[in-house]
Write a structure and sequence with these properties.
Chain lengths: 243, 95
């Protein structure tokens, strides 16, 4: 089987699968593990010859959608959409007071060194990296899937965080993720370049629509983004024999 | 500073700078309140990862993630998390 799972950004991929509707995409099982809020705590560990989830919602959804309680070496291929979920970093209200040392738009802020920002970024991703290292250790066939670019209508920007700072933090985080993954030989599928605006934000035509209740979703991408991303995932991974 | 292994952590500014409006002090305006200490430590551990690294116990679904900044969590964090949960429910339904 071919599984794609992860945080709430798998939703766009699932909607995209319905639009793509071809043989390659139909063979994929796409499902959420759960909310990304649990990615900042230890959420997985190796037990015997498998990786299990410590976070109950992830464990429940793995069983519900994949019919298994653990991920182990097999003929299955896994795509994990957990990488570059950088909203946790840039939405923090500290960025209304603090800023990176250098760059346009960073004036009149308390300055943080690049080393400090690297540490903040790495602290956010440490448990996702632990999970991916566990998969590597058990020789699981997997690849990583990146989250979309930041939304320029995110509440943190609307409430005063400078968009230049958001773009900078996202760029730093993506760079560090990219190096970490390539150092380990982990394939990562990044968002299609056509979805990225010139300033590093997701183009607005790829914003998720409002909920049926009318409530705004200021965080996710839409089905068309999912279609393009899924097409890229199939294209990139088929070239490597992963899918 | 030229040594890249040495960094400045602005704990004083986090408590005493004027945008904080003295909110992290005790009423006597001399001692830092527990809330102020928690605020500083939250930023510190957020930057250095020690809090998350120290949490190893297994949680149940009824327990929220352990966070030093509980009680100080900005509203936008909760709203984002709710949006993620709602979007997942909308797309995949309840178990």
């Amino acid at each position: 089987m071919k599984f794609i799972c992860g945080n709430s950004h798998t939703i766009a991929l699932s909607y995209g699968q319905r639009r793509l509707a071809n043989a390659d995409s139909a063979s994929l099982k796409i499902f959420p593990l759960g909310s990304g809020q649990y990615e900042t705590t230890p959420f997985s560990e190796v037990r015997g010859s498998g990786v299990v989830f410590l976070e109950p919602s992830y464990s429940d959804n793995l069983r519900r959608f994949a019919g298994t309680s653990e991920i182990r070496e097999s003929d299955d291929t896994w795509g994990f959409c957990l990488v570059n979920h950088n909203v946790r970093i840039y939405r923090h209200p500290m960025w209304k007071l603090y800023s990176p040392c250098f760059g346009p738009g960073f004036e009149s802020k308390f300055k943080l060194s690049n080393a400090a920002i690297d540490l903040i970024v790495d602290a956010d991703s440490m448990h996702i990296k632990s999970f991916l290292d566990q998969l590597l250790r058990l020789k699981i066939n997997f690849f990583a899937i990146s989250a979309p670019y930041p939304r320029e209508d995110h509440p943190c920007i609307l409430s005063g965080t400078k968009r230049e700072i958001v773009a900078h933090l996202d760029e730093v985080a993506r760079g560090r993720w990219s190096k970490w993954l390539s150092d380990r030989g982990i394939l990562c599928v990044d968002p299609p370049t056509e979805t990225r605006g010139s300033d590093g934000f997701l183009k607005s035509e790829f914003n998720a629509p409002h909920f049926p209740s009318g409530k705004i979703d200021p965080h996710h991408a839409n089905a068309e983004y999912g279609r393009m991303m899924l097409q890229k995932i199939i294209s990139v991974t088929s070239g490597t024999g992963s899918f | 500073m030229n040594d890249e292994d040495i960094d400045y952590f602005p704990s004083y500014e986090l408590v005493a700078s004027h945008p904080m409006r003295g909110m992290f002090y005790e009423p006597n305006l001399r001692e830092v309140a527990a809330l102020g200490v928690a605020h500083v430590m939250n930023v510190f551990f957020g930057a250095h990862g020690s809090l998350a690294g120290g949490v190893t116990s297994q949680r149940t679904s009824s327990q929220p993630p352990a966070r030093l900044d509980q009680g100080l969590s900005p509203r936008v964090l909760d709203e984002d998390d709710v949006v993620c949960d709602e979007a997942i429910l909308e797309a995949f339904g309840k178990p």
